[in-house]
Every structure is written in C-alpha cells, then in structure tokens.
Write the structure tokens for this entry.
Amino acid sequence: MKRLLVVDVSVRVMFHTVLIGSLYLLFVGHNRPGGGFVGGLVAGSAIALRFIAGGIDEVRGLTRFRPWTILGTGLLLAAVTAVVPVVLGDPVLSSALWEADVPLLGTVKTTSALFFDSGVYLLVVGLVFMVFEAFGGEPPTASAVDRTERAGGVA
Amino acid sequence: MLLLPLLHALTGTVLVASGPRLGRRWGAALGALAPLVTLIWLLTQLPGVLDGDVIDERTSWVDGLALTVDLRLDGFAALMVLLVSGIGVLVFWYSAGYFSDHTRDLGRLFGLLTWFSGAMVGLVLADNLFVLYMFWELTSITSYLLIGNSHENARARASALHALLVTGLGGLVMFVGFMLIGQAAGTFRLSEILADPPSGGPVTAGLVLVIVGAASKSAQYPFHSWLPGAMVAPTPISAYLHSATMVKAGVYLVARFAPAFAGHAVWRPIVLTVGLVTMVAGGLRALRQHDLKLLLAFGTVSQLGMLFVLFGAGLEAATLAGVLMLFGHALFKATLFMVVGIIDHQTGTRDLRALPGFGRPWLPVVAIGLVAAASMAGVPLLFGFIAKEQAFAGFDGTGYSWSAPVLAVLVGGSCLTAAYSARWAWGAFTAGGTDWHPAPPAAPVDRPPRRGFWAPPAVLATATLALGVAPMLADGFADVALSSLVAGAHHVHLALWHGPTLALALSLVVYGVGAAMFVARRPISSVLARGHTVPNGSDAYLAVLRALNRVADLVTRVTQSGSLPFYAGVILLTAAVAPGLALLIGTDTLAWPDFLDSPAHIPVVLALVGGALGAALVPRRLAAALFLSVVGYGMAALFVVEGAPDLALTQVTVETLGTVLFVLVLRRLPRRFSRPTAAGRIPRLFVSAAVGAAVFAFALVAADSRTAPPVSDEMIGRAYPDGHGKNIVNVILVDFRGIDTLGEIMVLGVAAVGAVALARAPVGSRRRARAATVGAHQDGDR
C-alpha cells in the first residue's frame, strides 16, 4: 500500500489529540455532554484515521491486546459494576459517590457510574477494532466479486 | 453444611487442574478426601440425628433478591449422605486399582467424580427447591461429562448426550413443577411445603411435572434407555453414579414428596404404574443380556422401578421397605458393578458367553459376587431379604384399595429379579455360558486380581451380610429415616424371622419361580430374543431426535430463504403494518404540528430531503452510502438546532464511523446495485411507500398523543441527588436505565462477534460443518 506523507504526518498529529478528546468526553460525561458511548466512538474515529493512513497493519500495531479481549473486558467491567451493588444488598447499578481533596485540583468527585461508562467505552473501542479486523483486510479481487454476483450471492 | 459441597468443589478443581500429574494413587486419595471428611462430619452429627434432631442451616446468598441456601440434615438425608459419601470413598479406593497411571485424562475423571459427589451431597441436604434443582442439574452435567470422558469415542459422546438430554429436559420440566408448587405454597422451602402441602389445579400440574423429572432421572420407563447407554463409562463411574447414587435422586424426590402428596388424585396412579412397568420390563430386558454390565444396568432399571413403587405409595410400611431397599440396593448393586469391573479388568471381557469360570485365586471375588447377587435375589441372612420381606409386608393389609394388584406385580418382578440374579452369578462365575453361543466373542485371559482391588466390594458385601444376619443393627437409622419422611411413624424393629407370614410365603414363591426360570433359561431366552424386534426406548429416543432435526430443517428452509431483499422486505413490512393498523383503528384525527420553528430548519431540511432522495436514486453503492451519511449529519444538525447537544454528538460520531464501515464493506461488493426486474421493482416500491407513510403518520400521532405527564420531570429532579450527575441523559443511561444499557452493550458485543465470524467464514464452510455433525451422530447411533 502506498502511503502519503501528508496524510501520515497529519494523522500522527491528530491521533493522540482525538484520543485525549475521547477520554475527556468519557470523564465529563456524567455532568456535561459526553459519556462512554460517545467517547468510545470518538476513540474509534481516531483508530479509523490510523486505518486510513496505514491500513489494517497499522491498526493491529496500535495495541498488543486482541480486539475481542478489549470488548470482553469492557463488557465484564460494566457487568461487574452492575452486579456489585446487588451483592452489597442494594438495587442493581446503584451508584456510589466518592469525593476526595487532591492537591492543585481541589475537590474531585467521581461516581461508580464512571466504571460502568468506562466499560461501555472499552466495549465500543473493542467493537471498532473488531470491525476493522473483520472487514479491514485486503478486499477480494474484482473477479471474485463478479463470480459472487453471477452466482446470485448478492442481490 | 454448605462447606461440604464447597470442599468437594475445591478438591475437584485441584484434581482437574493437576491433570495426570498426581497419578492414580494420589489422585484417588485426594478425591476420597472430601467424601471422607463428609463421612466424618456425618458421624459427629449422628448421635443427635439418631435422637431425632434436625439440623437446619440457612445461608443468605443475595439479600437484594431474597435468595438463600437452605440445607437440612434429617434422618433420611443422613442416610443418603452416608450412601453417597461412604460409597464415594470406596469407589475412589476401587478406582486406584481399576485405572492405570496411563489412563487418559485421569485427573479430570477424578475431579469430575469429586464434583459429582459434592453435588449429590448438596442435593440430598437441600431444603430449598431452587438449591435442590441447582444440585440436581449439577449431577446431570457431571454425569454427562463422566460418561463422555473418553471423548474420542463416538459412542461415548452419543450416550453422554442421550443421558444429558433426557435427564436435563426432565430437570427443566421438574423445575416448572417446582415453580407451580412453590407459588401455590407461598414458599420454596421443601420442609415447609411438605409440612403443609398445597392443593389446587396448578399443584396437580406441578406434581405431574415433578414426577416426569424424577422418572427421567431415575431411568423409569419410558425414559430409561439412557441408563444402559451410560454403561460405556468406566465401571467405577457406573457403580457410583449409575447404580448407587445419582439414579436414586428421582427416587429420593418421590420419597420426600409421597407422604405429603400420595393422597392427590394423580400421584399414585402415575407413580405406581410407571414403577411397576419399569420393574417388570427392566427385569425382562435384564434376562436377555449377555453383557454382565448391561445385565446389571437393566437390573438397576428394574430395581429403581420397585423403589418408585415402594416410596410412591406413600404408605408407612411400604416407605420403610423403600428405605431398606434403597440402602440394600446401593450396597449390593455397587458391589456387583465393582465385581464386573474386576472381571472385565482382569480377563478383558464381560460377556458371559466367553467367561470360562474361575480357579482358586479368584475365590474372594466369587464369594463377594455371590453374596451380592444373593442379596439382590432376596436370599435370607442377607440384607436384601430383610428389605424384600418388608416390601411384601408393606402392601399386605393396608387401607389402599389397589394393594393386592400392586403386590402381585411386585412379586412377579421379584421373580424376574431372582432369575436374573442367578443368571448373572452363573454367567460370571461358571463356564455354563460358554456353550451358550457357538462362537464366543473374544478369548479371555485369566489374571487373578490383587487384594487391594477387591477390598472395596468386600467391605460392602460384609455390610450386606452383617446387616442381613443382625438387622436390628439398622433399627435406629431406619427409624429416624422413616420418621423424617412419615410424621408420627411407628418405631422400627427389624428382625430375621417374623413367623409364618404372607411375606414369607411370597418369598418362597419368588425363589421357586426364580429357580424355575433359571432352569428353563433356554426356552425363555429364545422367547425373549424375539423382543429384539419390538422397538425399545433408545429407538424411540433416536426417532424423536430425527423428527426434531427434520422439523428444524423444514422451519429453516421456510424461514431462511437466503435472500437478503426478502428478509429486509419482511422486517420492514412488519414494522409498517403492525403500527399502521393500530393507527388506523385507534386514531380519529391527525393534528398537524408547526412545520417551521426557526429559520435554521430550512437548510437542514433541504439537506435531509436531498440526501434521502439521492440515496434512493443513485445507481452506485458508494454514492448511496455517502448520501445516507448526508441524511445522518443532517439529523445531527437538526438535534443541534433543537438544543440536544448530547444526541448531536452521538449522531455525528456514529455517522462518521458508520461511513467508514460502509466504505470498508462496499469494497467487497460490486460497484453498482444489481438492477431488479420490473416484477421485482413493484413489491419494493410498495414496501418503501408503506414504510414511509406509516412512519410519517406514526410520528405525527405519537407527538400529539401524550396522556400521562412526562416522566422526564421526575428524572430531571432526581438526576443530581440520586445519580450524582448533571447530565441527565447520561444519568439515565448509566443509572436509571442502566440495566437497559447493560443489555444493549451485550447485544452490541454479540453482534460484533457474529459479524467477525460471518466475515471470516469462507463460503460453503457452514454446509461442510453441518455434514460433519450429522455424520458423527450417525456413527454414535449404533
């Protein structure tokens, strides 16, 4: 695959910025527009940028975890967050609030919903990785496509 | 008490994880640990239990859902624990001699046996229908894994599946029964339900379902055929699961339920009929077997039928007989299986036509086998005699009007038992069987077994003998077991000699007829051989499986045509017609809303309409996808104008990624849409128009049809105090409706896995996979 220097460099510049933006959306989500789902999608867009620049190999090189591991971790995190209150005797997904005084930042508040949202975030990121894994490879050659069509496989 | 199953689970897990590293001796020793601890615990509790004390234990599990684990040790449960753990220890001891260090998957086998033992202990201690059901299914699953342990063997796999399907489906049916009975009683505690049995229509249905579950687990007709199939498992497993303990679970349940529910109109006719048919049919099948182990398996089916009758009648004397028979059967049947295992292990065959009789070094094994077989036949001075006498006495002179016919069939079944007991002993220990058939299947070798190998069955045979000579030793235990089933039962006094009673006369009849049948074994055998042409239970099972496959194929062919436009058409038309009809019926007027709130709407709407038209009209796929994105971004703009930044943000990101995905997938498809024929175009136009009209009308009506105050006010009010968040949408997503979100992301995850699997599957592989499955099953049919 031929790579364009302009695309390469600008994607490199934008990638981490977009990722940080996605984390911002994840963390402010409880009080401002954002949340785990949108954050995950924005992170997915960052991955899509890398795909545009370097194809599936570049996406695979982003992490050493397999896509389904990321997806499963997210699902597990969300499910565990949901179940923990039940074990403690509260309704499912009751949220807890923690406050802490951090030097320089002042009072920091967070809730258990953040874990749930992080689960959603991870799941969406894993989903994007999986989509690229499934469909991001080299497409079949034109003749193969024609064969499929003639066999009536695609209407 | 809860620690006992947990200890089993722990040591079982260690054994499975250790694999073959421990070897047979240490593996068996570790496996025997948990049953041994259970046995010691039982001994410490025994003085109290024999005084009639009942130990209740309640462990709260999930407070939020009011789930508790209730366990209860009473006399009958103690008897069952004694059987499960006592025989468990002996089976592990025996396994050390039966298996070699080179047996494949030995660690897993021992671990599964330990798990099973723990599940069985939990089952008999459970005092809560949910807990009982959970342990019940655990025994089914461990049984499945144990039968199929040699997983390269297609027959083992098919038999394991057979057992799992029958007992698992039976368990599910039983669970529904539990629900009905528990709902009617208002409690799911077994002891409370039995103390104050509910009645009514649902209870009747529930009882029938429970009987079905118990019958499938205890291999009653017509569900019995999985048990002979399960004999492909190694003999220690057959001795433990498929004769002494697991198959008694159904009997155990009947024993618990019968005193409370026997008066119910449906109970006795079903349970007694099933039990009697099973007893006679199993006995007849046993008489024609050449495989000593299969003979015992059908014998077990027959005896389980007898236990069903004894307990199911719900009469005090018969229940006592059931308790004795349950114990006696476990003793002698486990012994017999172990002896068959020894013979098989040392000679390489268990076909009675090939066994030549044994010399002096085999004397202990022969003696053990004879004691056990005689106990099965009901010969005096052995515990089987005590139990059988009580069984006959239990249906003599009771208030139950059908006692006499039941007693007659019991006697008939016992004659068969005596006859196949004799056939087993004769076939195993004499050369009598070798001239039976012109060509013996395999020439046996003769290696007398070592002492450690036959010691475990010797322990059981000694117990059979000791309790047969001095039955009063069992008085106390039988007494508490009986009184924990039947409230206010008389005290038990077991004795060898009751004087010239009807039961004794019937026993003499049984010996006479049994001996006559043994003498006349050739003509009887030739008559029974014709029975091979009669369809049996395993034919029925296979027929049901095949029919199920055919129905599934038919349904699949009808519903899954493979045409994507057809699927999409059906889905869209349903989405249009179902709400459309509701609109036509339920709406009188359409209120037209204000079409234009702000000038910003004009460019947005123009983009939306233009994008939609473009997507519908362009001939190239990629262009259509891009037009669709225009619609999506237009929607995002609309959300911004309407003041919903959250929605807009989500819409924009989804649209962006969606477009990338479209491009990825479209690379694999032809550039242009295939052109439908004129005949194909009309239905498409119709579906599109219908969907468009329905959605349009629905949106108008829905916006105007609010009758209740919106729930959003309450959510706005509670978002910060309860959910600690200022973004109400997010609080709703992760807190108020968090369970919905959890469900949705699960769907998303499953869809992702499915999409990857679809994208990776090469064309045609599914057809090949299906052909392979069917082939394996047909191999297993035999």
